[in-house]
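Protein Entry — a single chain follows
Next Lines — sequence and tokenised fold
***
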Amino acid sequence: MSGTENRPADAAQPFSRALGTGVRLVMLVPVVAIQLAAVALIVYGAIETWHFVDALFFNTEHAPSHDGILLLAIEIVDLFLLATVVQVVSLGLYQLYFHQDLKLPPWLKITTLDDLKSKLVGVVITVMSVYFLGRALTWTVGADIAYLGVAVALVIVALTYFLSKIDTH
């Protein structure tokens, strides 16, 4: 009788294995697509960096102002930070679905979806802060910057609260 009790579970194993393989194959699409987006952002950032250097040193008739230089430099940093966010998400999904044992720095180790969410939120907070800094340094029109500052601050507070809830679980 014990041999017949195990048959339904044994019959479900190939289906479960096929389902798991199917889910993993489907998740390969966002991993590859997000990785391509990260590479595209890095290439775009490199091109923008070259335009920045060219405008600063070689094309002096169209040289940006001091504030323009600050804004362009911060925008380049912001672009590479965004590329980092995209890269972290791609690596995180890859670790979650395919390979937990990647040789990565400890800060890039992802073992749960909450780990990935907290890393993403942390980098988004940094990107938003850098974006606001760039705008604040070059703002010239009245006190309207306060609206942007309040909006960015509210989002950062909400994301920080979200992070505190993830970390307590």
About this structure: The mean pLDDT is 84. The chain has five helices and no strands. Helices lie at 2-5, 7-58, 66-97, 113-138, 145-167.
